[in-house]
Amino acid sequence: MEKANPSGSEYSLGSNILFALRSHWRTKKSTLVFCVIAIIAGVLLPFIGILLPKLVIDLLTTGATPGHFVTIIGGAAVLFVILNGVKGYTDEIVNNSVGTLAAFNSITQKAEKNLNMDYELMEHPDVQMLEERAGRAWDSNHTPAHNVPRTIVRLAVNVFGFILYGSVIIAVHPAIIIFLIISAIINWQSLAAARKFEIATEEERATLSRKLSYMHKSLKQPAGAKDIRLYSMAQWMQKLFFGTLSQNEHVEDKIAARYMWAQLMEGLLILIRDGAAYALLIYLLLQGRITLGDFVFVFAAIGAFAGWISGIILQASELLRASDQTTHIRAFLDYPDRSNLGKAAPLPSGSQLPPTISLCGVSYAYPKSEKAALQDVSIEISAGERVAIVGANGAGKTTLIKLICGLYRPQQGQIYLGEVEVDKYNRDEYFSLFSTVFQDIHLLTCDIAGNISQMPSETTDDQKVEKCLRLSGLIDKVQTLPAREKTLLVREVNDNAIELSGGEKQKLALARALYKDAPVIILDEPTAALDPIAESEVYQKYAELTDGKTSIYISHRLASTRFCDRIFFMDNHSIVEVGSHDELMRLGGRYAEMFEVQAHYYQEGVRGQDGEVAAG
After folding, report:
1. Strand, helix or coil for residue 471
2. Contact (Cβ atoms closer than 8 angstroms) between residue 331 and residue 11
């Protein structure tokens, strides 16, 4: 697998800004139009506000007629009122709607990426780190990444204000500008240092955030809650959670402290620079080198100019933060899939189904793992054959299945479906060939029919659903429900939903596999929680209902898969024995040894350590 690029260094500030603006343009074009209007109003409104006193003083001191006075001041006042209304309206859009629209757009982008990315990437530590960083940028509608247009508006207002007010101040005396700009450079350096520290702690904060998220999720899950109570883990879990939370807060406090010192430095610089500027302005007035109207105008301009400088520094820093966050978002969204998602070889059809599946020298190691999970596996599963993959836990059975059904791609060797290498097929089309049931059965937050068809209600074949419920043995349960197959599942989401027992979930999973009616059926230990006899019955049921299809069964209980045509016994991440049950028993190897050990515990009448006869 290609290595992730956690830094996302290929994304420049300019490209990140364009990415954000294009996203807003696609979502709602009028938003960016209002942003342009907000810039114009944001610059002109305060300028007219400081210009009005100068106009009043100049008109009074020059003896302007009442009509001329009313015309000039009244016109300026009307313009001020209009701009104030425009600014209020556009500010509401820029300050609130921009972030909200971006947040909704981000949710859509993240959902599309998670739904469509290669499954293998979802387990990759580097990709998980990228997603965690992107998640911090996606955290709310107030994050810098979600408010790039707002930041650009504020930065543009400050830049144009800086130019406009600077021109006014320079006309009076250039030295005032020098005071203000020097202090701005010092202030920028202090803010840049704080931002540099924030970036340096990104990975540490992302790791702590992921730990907190995992622990918080574990505390809410009923499955974990049982262990916490029965094993008195509450105090230990609480200590672990708050300890990690304290570490996270410590890092966040250090970042906040650096920004606080930067702000204190800014306050000190404002005091020095404004004091020096005002002193010079008073000197010029007393010397008669400027008029009273100019004094009032420039005096107000200096205060506003200092604000423009601070605003430029603050918004430029915010824009850089937004760019950093956008880099994380883009690095996650752009992480490439290895699978073929475009034009591809046609899938087998007609007499080519079910297909032959061949693995030639296949090896696979999980990311960051020094040891291979699967090593040099070469097998061929004939069309319509029933095979079992058995072995101890951790032998590599599930990894092998994920490779066969296309969730993983081999790092060495090739996998063939028929005569065609799997990589030459379209990934999603290839998935259509498999009905796979894993240990953890996922329930959709919809009705029973939707959970079986895996489709919206309008495209679900209700007659086919009922047939599959009958074949899987779940029909008796469903018929007792008032809404039958339209009964909702998952109580955490639907108040009037029901909960299925473990065995009922197994039957629903069987109905789901039957509904898909794919040519290859794979069962990856979905009955691990059942007793050996019940598990054997479930497998026999699958075998009866999937006649004519290629069937692959995984179990660590060897007796459950005796009905299969062939058995692949895995040990130490490779296939070490192949044959039917009888053949492997006659071989007397690892399979026979493990079978005898397991059979000892399943037989009735095995004596316990206390000498009593135990029920089988």
Report:
1. helix
2. yes
